[in-house]
Amino acid sequence: MPGIYIHIPFCKQACHYCDFHFSTVLKSKGDLSSPGSILQTIYFGGGTPSLLSGDEIKNILTVIRKNFTVEDKAEITLEANPDDLTREKLESLRLGGVNRLSIGIQSFDDEDLKWMNRAHSAAQAIESVKLSQEAGFDNITIDLIYGTPLLTDEQWKINFSTAFDLNVQHLSCYALTVEPRTALAHAIAKKNQAGVEDGKQAKHFGILMEMAARNGFEQYEISNFARGGLYSKHNSSYWLGEKYLGVGPSSHSFNGESRQWNIRNNNEYIRIINEGKIPAETEILTEQNKFNEYVMVSLRTMWGCDLEKISKDYGTDVAETFFRQAKKKIETGLMIQQNQNFILSEKGKFFADRIAADFFVV
User: Fold this and answer.
1) Backbone phi, then psi, for 221, in 5-degree steps?
2) 304 dihedral zone (left: phi>0; alpha: psi -120 to 50; beta)
3) The whole model's pTM is what?
4) b/e burial code for range 279-317 (CB count within 10 A of at least 16 → b)
5) pLDDT digit string (tens) for 81-91?
6) Of 50, 124, 181, 185, which is least surrounded by CB within 10 A?
7) How far is CA 194 from the centre of its chain?
């Protein structure tokens, strides 16, 4: 099993666009430590994992090492908010075992950050990266969001120029989505907030791809860009269909044959765990599920869909049907064939989900 994901379900405040499971009530924060395989990656996600102290992170890693063999050079990532990253905190995280930071910057524009209800400022965002580098972190990724109502084309370019000047190794860039039950969705429904503009998001995506390539970043997944081959090993394992274990409320697990997802309630999760039970539901995947997910996920990557793998895992009939459909996409300029692999063209990346759906077995 290549990786383990630890969901830390706490945040200082709720961002208006966020639909991830979290709580702003921190009183049970210390009750979520978790009690074979060789782990290549460990990922602390959330929520806001940087709310944990270095000692709490170290304690969790100690428990993991008691139950699993962890590679000496395992990638250990922690998601962090800029306002949490003081010199002292960074030093404690590094000593605790974290060797990769994922900093949720989202924007280098104060008005944009205020609109999102982020807790940090643009100045804190820049300072957090510099402090992280000074603390010895040399594998840093930052998150940026595009397509927000206040974000102009020029400011989006400035966001990138700032990121390039900071010399980070990785970028994760996402189009704003309106998730149900969020403050943003409620404001749009009340007509207090404009909705998402597809044309604006498409333009920002084009700017993203052009500027990233010009500055030495490789787009190895639709939303992820890396310099020097420093791909996220943990997230790449998801995209390559490898097994992983999820620990914590709302986290997911995959063993190749089924998916499992934990309950989205902190108190219930703790109560059921203390009873010696697993607070989760499981779905057994059909061959159709597996194929459709393989196409959907792999088409988002620079490695694309492997025709030989499709033939081996799902049969020659499925492979032949895929090939016929792929030829049509190639003729319209949406896909490219590289030996046995079929990948999205630059044009095709704008329509990734729609293209993947055309290949699904129903």
Assistant:
1) -150, 155
2) left
3) 0.88
4) bbeeeebeeeebbbbbbbbbbbbebbbbbeebbeebeee
5) 999 999 999 99
6) 181
7) 26
Which of 137-146, 153-162, 191-200, 233-242 is predicted least confidently?
191-200
The CATH number of the structural domain formed by 3-239 is: 3.20.20.70
Q: Can you tell me the distance from the alpha carbon of 73 to that of 79, in angstroms, rounded to the nearest whole number?
A: 19
Task: Give buried/exposed letters for 66-88 (b at 16+ CB in 10 A, else e).
Answer: eebebeeebbbbbbbbbbbbeee
Give the integer Cα–Cα distance in Å for 29 and 25: 8
DSSP bridge pairs for 247? 6
For 30-58, write each residue's pLDDT tens digit. Answer: 433 343 578 999 999 988 898 888 899 99
Residue in the block written with tokens 């206040």 = 150
Pair of tokens at residue 279 = 């607070």
Q: List the one residue out of 159, 72, 89, 165 whose CA is nearest residue 122.
A: 159
Are both 3-239 and 287-359 of the same fold? no
Q: Closest Cα to residue 231, out of 41, 361, 91, 60? A: 41
DSSP 321: H
Nearest CA to 359 out of 338, 248, 346, 314 is that of 314
Q: Which CATH class is domain 287-359?
A: mainly alpha
pLDDT at 1: 57
**What pLDDT band is residue 21 in, cutting at 50, 70 and 90?**
very low
Domain ranges of the chain: 3-239, 287-359
Cβ atoms 314, 286 nearer than 8 A:
no
- Rounded to 5°, angle at Cα 279 from 278 and 282: 85
Terminal alpha carbon distance of the chain: 30
Average pLDDT over residues 211-221: 97
H helices, E strands: number in the chain: 13, 15
- What pLDDT, in 10s, does the model give residues 261-309? 999 888 898 899 899 998 999 999 999 999 999 999 999 999 999 999 9
Element housing 168 (H / E) = none
Q: Measured between alpha carbons, how far is 251 from 273 in angstroms, rounded to an integer?
A: 14
The tokens describing 278, both together, are 């697993």
Q: Which two tokens stand for residue 136?
A: 């010895």
Omega of the bond prior to 47 within 30 degrees of 0, cis? Answer: yes
